[in-house]
Amino acid sequence: MLPWLQSDRFPLYLAPMAGVTDVVFRSLCKELGADVMVTEFVSAEGILQRDDRTRHYTEFDDGQRPLGVQLFGADGVRMGEAARKIIDWKQPDFIDINFGCPVNKVVSKNGGSSLLRNCPLLASVAREVARAVPVPVTAKMRTGWDSQNINAVEVARLLEDCGIQAIAVHGRTKAQGYSGLADWDVIAQVADAVKIPVVGNGDISGGQDVEVRRAQTGVRGVMIGRAAMTNPWVFREIRHYLATGVHAPAAGIEERFALMRRHCQMALARTTRGELEIMRSMRTRLMNYTKSLPGGKHLRGRFSHITSFMELEDILAEHLTLRHDPEECSQTGQSA
Ligand SMILES: Cc1cc2nc3c(=O)[nH]c(=O)nc-3n(C[C@H](O)[C@H](O)[C@H](O)COP(=O)(O)O)c2cc1C
To answer: Which CB contacts under 8 angstroms, 24+ apart, belong to 320-325?
Structure first.
C-alpha cells in the first residue's frame, strides 16, 4: 500500500497540469498544504531521446515528495524503458501513467485517453510499466471515451489486475473535454469496484466539496487542478475546513501579491533564460492569481504586457495606492 494512501490518510493531490504544475508552482502548492504531486505529463519517447525539454519537466525538489512523474505513450515496453531512465535520474516516489489526455496530438498517436478505447493495449502498457520499475505505478484516467462508452469500472479492474497500485479518476469523458460537470457517480462506482485506492478528481474547489465527496463515495483522496491554478491557497482552505468545519477567509490582496512576487522570483532564480522570457511566461500565471481580486480586470490588462520584475513591483505598488483612493479605483474598472 502506498504510504500516503494508507487508510488513516486522505491526501490532497495537486493535479498534473501541463504548462502549470512546474517545479516552482509545485513548491508553492506544497507549502500551502498539498500532500502529493504529479509532474505534468511527459512523452516516453522524449525521455528516451534525452530531449532536454522533456527532462526539464521531470525536475522536482525533495521537499515535494511524495511525487510521481507522469508518462504518456502507447508502447508499454518503450514506456517501461523511459520509466527506468527517469528513476535512474531522479528517483521519484512513483510513476503515473496518463490514460486521460484528450489532446489530439496525443490521442492521434494512441496515447492518453485513446487507450480507453483499446483495453488490450491499455493493459499491455500498464503491465509493462509496472513490471519495468521498482517503484509503485499509478494511473490517471477519464470515465471513458464518450457518453456512449463509459467504461471506467472495467478499465479500473483491468489496471488493478495489471499491478497498478492506485488510480485517479477525472469524472469526465474524453469527449467532454472540460465541459459539463464531473460525474462523481462513476467515480464512486470505480472506488467500489476495486481494492486499490481511488483518488477522485473533478471540480473540487473547497473544503465542503471534499467533505461531501469523501462522505458520499469510497475515494481515498482527492485531486485538485484548476482551482489551484487560480487559488493555490485552496489546499490550506480545505485543510482548515476539514479540521474546523468553518471556511477559512480567502487569501487577501497582500498575500496574493506576495505570492505573485515569490513565484516570479523563484522562476527567475531557477532559470538560465533571460528575465524577459521568464516574465513573458509568467503573464498568464499572474493573470490567474487576480481572479476574484477587486480591480482584477485592470491588473490582468497590465500583466498581459509585463516584461520585467521591476514592472511587476510597480504595478503592485500602484494598485495598492489606488486601492486606497476610491476615485482612482473607479476609473480603472473594478470588476473582478
Ligand atoms: C491546463 C491543464 C493542463 C492539464 N494537463 C494535464 C496533464 O499533463 N496530465 C493529466 O493527467 N491531466 C492534465 N490535466 C487535467 C487535470 O489534471 C484534471 O484532471 C482536470 O483539470 C480536472 O480537475 P479539476 O476540475 O480539479 O481542474 C490538465 C488540465 C488543465 C486545465
So the answer is: 320/253, 320/257, 322/295, 323/253, 323/294, 323/295
**143 close to ligand 1 (CB < 6 Angstrom):** no
Does residue 309 share a domain with residue 177? no
Ligand 1 pocket residue status of 209, Cβ below 6 Å: no
Q: Is residue 204 within 6 Å of ligand 1 at its C-beta?
A: yes
Indicate if 92 and 191 belong to the same structural domain: yes
Domain that holds residue 313: 253-331
Q: Ligand 1: distance of its center to the CA of 65 in Å?
A: 20
This prediction has a pTM of 0.95
Residue at 136 is within a domain: yes
* Structural domain contains residue 336: no
Backbone angles phi, psi at 23, to 5 degrees: -60, -35
Cβ atoms of residues 100 and 71 within 8 Å: no
What does the pLDDT look like over 234-263, one tens digit per residue? Answer: 999 999 999 999 999 999 999 999 999 999
| Residue 119 annotated as catalytic | no
Nearest residue CA, atom 18 of ligand 1? 225
Q: Is 281 helix (H, G, I), strand (E, B) or coil?
A: helix
Residues 101 and 180 occupy one common structural domain: yes
Nearest CA to ligand 1 atom 30: 17
Report the Cα–Cα distance between both ends of the chain, in Å, rounded: 44
Is the CB of residue 154 less than 8 Å from the CB of residue 119?
yes
Q: pLDDT tens for residues 163-222? A: 999 999 999 999 999 999 999 999 999 999 999 999 999 999 999 999 999 999 999 999
Whether 238 is in the pocket of ligand 1, judged by its Cβ within 6 Å, is: no
Q: Quick check: 48 and 77 in contact, CB under 8 A?
A: no
In a domain, 87, yes or no: yes
Which grid coordinates are listed for 285?
A: 500565471
Q: Tell whether 322 is covered by a domain.
A: yes
